[in-house]
User: What shape does this take?
Amino acid sequence: MTRWPLGVVDVVYARLDDVADRARAARADGFVHVDPLLGTDERTLVIPIGCPTAFPKPVDTWCATPAPSAQLDGAWERAVRWWRRAPHALLEPWAGAVVCSRETVDAFRAEVGDVRLLVDTGHVADWGGDPCELLALADHVQLRQGRPGATQLHAGDPTGVVDFAAVFRELERLDYRGRLSVEYFDLPDQGWPLADPRQWARDLADDLRSRAIA
Assistant: This one.
């Protein structure tokens, strides 16, 4: 039994319209929690909620929100204003966002305060970073394979640069008390097409378990 049983982000099952159906699919795939949109009634789900998502703006409660896209006018000022109003929300940095590197994470926290992170290993790999450098700031971690210029790769892709063994060692060293969720998605309008995110999520979970990492 892993110290951090694996959950899954419900966008993996986006082709199922009902969140309760997504949770049932997640349980069938062996995941122990699901991360849906904020406001989902946990009593309607067959597994507990891990970390809900508030989108597009953070809410001052336990949830996570992606940093605003860097293409938006005034994105930095908008993000600072939002997280000052919602200091309990986790910030998720990503390659195309206004917060997209260790340097911008540090600058943002210097301006806003002790904002905690959702660290997605695929997003960090996409911008050429090492997720282990951010784990000390993480209250939730999402797992997927990636490389510079690519947020999501299959678990078996030899070009992937995410060292999951190193990620788990660092979580152990930090005595991490949060949860882990696998995430893949099919979002072609945002530049992230993927034919079968559910299978890729299962494949990553199976790979981690087979190597006794998770």
